[in-house]
Structures are given as C-alpha cells and as structure tokens.
Amino acid sequence: MVRVNTAKGPAVVGSDCAHVFRGYREDNPSVFIMDMPAWIRSFDKVKSKAAIDLIFPGHDILMDQNYPKVAEGVTQLV
Asked: I need a surface site. Which of 33, 45, 66, 73 has the fewest CB within 10 A?
C-alpha cells in the first residue's frame, strides 16, 4: 500500500489487496488469497486510509481507461 496526500484528500494505491475497483467497493477479495485473516487485516487497513473513491487497485483496466495518461506508462489518478 502507498498513501499520498492530494488536494482531494489522502489517496491509496492498495495494489493486490483487491485487483479491481469493484473489490474495494464491494468488499470482494482477490482470488489469490493464501491467508484470509491476514488479508482481512490488510484490506481493512487499506480501506481505513482513504475515501473509497480514492483507493486504487493493482490491476483494473479502468485505471487505463478512466484516468488521463500524462506520459508513456504513467497515469494521473488524482
């Protein structure tokens, strides 16, 4: 997890805790969980660090489609 302060408030890249936005919004885990109690602790920690609309997953195609590209391989999330 990476948390940064932005003009909109704290934003978090939650990476693989949930692979897609829907996972964070619906409390839906990644399919690759090896330790469910540890995942729950991590997931809850990610969600406590930023508003739901400022939590970004690790692999959602919407990251490419819904946010502006500012350079090759770089997307502006907030």
From this structure: 73
- pLDDT mean by block of 10 residues, the chain; 78 residues: 95 89 87 88 94 91 86 86
Q: Where are the beta strands (DSSP E) in the chain?
A: 2-6, 9-15, 55-57, 69-71, 74-75
Return the pLDDT at 72: 87
Give the global pTM.
0.84
**Is the separation of the CB atoms in 58 and 16 below 8 Å?**
yes
